[in-house]
Design a protein that fits this description.
mainly alpha, 81% helix, globular
Amino acid sequence: MKFLSLSLLGQKIITPLYLVTVLVSFVMIGWLLNGYVATQTVCIGTLAMICYVTWVGSGAIALASVWVVGLMSMAAINQLWLHDLPRPEFRFIPMVLLANWLFALGVVWLLGKASDFLRQRYVSRIWAFFALMCLVVIGLVSGWQLYPKTLQIFFPS
């Protein structure tokens, strides 16, 4: 009986944990998109890829990973990295790009797993899709808006 109650408690904790983690992750993704001066095409393509991963779940991780690798490759080729930050020493830029790339791939994996989890827990696939998309959009917009404010805090002019 005690095992059953711990299992139910774990299920009640996992759903909010997934949702909060998705929200915080997409705040960071929005922050990074603003930092990399993402064009409207990149933002729309990213949002389309997010919709696809949210709808399909883990099965879409491979295609979304190709999108992330392509974006990070273009950022490296065009030297688009966090435009307003004071330039670090050149040797740190590849590490920053690698960290951002790994973070973005982790967020893709998290979104796929969260989508699968919500679709298994709740009857309506549409409810799970719209709940995750609302969190994602709120996170992206918040992160985009936070970028200039965080720069003022850490790098006052």
